[in-house]
Design brief:
The protein has 75 residues and is an all-alpha fold. The chain has one domain. Helix 1 packs antiparallel against helix 2. The longest helix has 29 residues. The protein is elongated, with a radius of gyration of 17 Å. The model has no long low-confidence stretch (mean pLDDT 85).
């Protein structure tokens, strides 16, 4: 039988989700510019802007501690 998820495991999972969201947004912006046939430096700029946008999105989706609370605080 599986025991309860520890706060450390929950925090680690939230961190991985945050990194995944930021990378997804950044890579999406870069791939969209590649389809448009723009120079490589503009693709890099788009990926940088996508990275900043992804960071802002993560900040809005996971305010404060990332939604990770101990089991006592949830009750």
């Amino acid at each position: 039988m599986v025991g309860p998820v520890s706060d450390e495991e929950r925090s680690d999972a939230a961190f991985r989700i945050k990194i995944g969201i930021v990378l997804f947004v950044s890579l999406s912006a870069g791939l969209i510019t590649l389809q448009g046939g723009v120079p490589l430096w503009q693709t890099g700029v788009a990926m940088l802007v996508g990275l900043l946008t992804g960071l802002a999105l993560v900040y809005l989706v996971f305010p404060g501690d990332g939604g990770v609370r101990s089991s006592r605080q949830r009750r």
